[in-house]
Amino acid sequence: MPTVAVHEIVEGALYDEVRLQRGSNSFYMFTNPVGMADVPPDRFKSFLLTNMLQPGTLESPKSFNIKRINVLFLREDRPLRIYESALYRKTFISLEIMDKISWRGPAWMAASPFALFGSPREEIEDLEKHYGIAWERVGAGFPSGIDIHRLDCFMVRIEVPSVDEDGISVFVHLDGKLSRAVV
C-alpha cells in the first residue's frame, strides 16, 4: 500500500542568539543547537537562546521558506537601538545555504523593529497608519522567500569589524513558512 504524506504549512520562525567576544570578528549562528555549549563555554544553549535542534540543519522532515531576517544587538540582554551603536552600520550579515551566499547586507538593513523604536508596541501599531509601512516589512525581506530544505546545511554569518566591550550579543530571527509532515 502506498504511503501518503500530508504536509501542513504554518507561519514560523527560527531564532538564535550568540554572545560576541572581544577580539573576534566573525560569528556563526544556527550552528549550536539546544543543549550544546555556547560562547563562553560555561553557558549552554537553551530554548531561550535558540530553537535549533540540530546543528545547521532542520530536523526531518521539515522545510522552511524564509520571508524576512531581523537582527537585534543586545547589551547586557537589553536591546541596543540603531542610533545607540555603530554595530548596525559596521556589521555585515550573510545567509548561507549549502555553502552559497543567499543574501548579504549590512545589519541596519535587517534591523529588528525593537532596534528602531523606543517603545516598539505603540510604534509598530502606528507604523502603517503614519508611514504606510506594515511592520512585517521591517527588516530584510524576500517576497518569494528563500528555501531551506530538510538536509540543507545553513547558517547566518555575522561579520563585526571589532568588538570593544563585554556583554554584547546578537539575536537573529528568521521569519517564514514552515512545512512539516502531519501524521
Strand count:
9
Average pLDDT figure = 83
Are there runs of 5+ residues with pLDDT below 50, and where? none
The first-level CATH class name: Mainly Beta
How much of the sequence lies in strands comes to: 35-45%
| Topology-level CATH name | Jelly Rolls
What does the radius of gyration come to? 17 Å
Count the domains: 1
CATH architecture descriptor: Sandwich
Globally, the shape reads globular
Element order, helices and strands? Answer: EEEEHEEHHEEE
- Termini Cα gap: 16 Å
List the helices and strands and how they pair.
Layout: E1 6-19, E2 26-29, E3 63-75, E4 78-79, H1 87-90, E5 92-97, E6 100-106, H2 113-116, H3 120-131, E7 140-148, E8 154-159, E9 168-182
Key features of this structure:
mainly beta, Jelly Rolls, 4-stranded antiparallel beta sheet, 11% helix, globular
Task: Give structural notes.
By secondary structure, this protein is mainly beta. The chain has a single domain (6-182), classed as Jelly Rolls (Sandwich). 11% of the residues lie in helices and 42% in strands. It contains three helices and nine strands; from the N terminus they run ββββαββααβββ. The protein has helices at residues 87-90, 113-116, 120-131; strands at residues 6-19, 26-29, 63-75, 78-79, 92-97, 100-106, 140-148, 154-159, 168-182. The radius of gyration is 17 Å and the shape is globular.
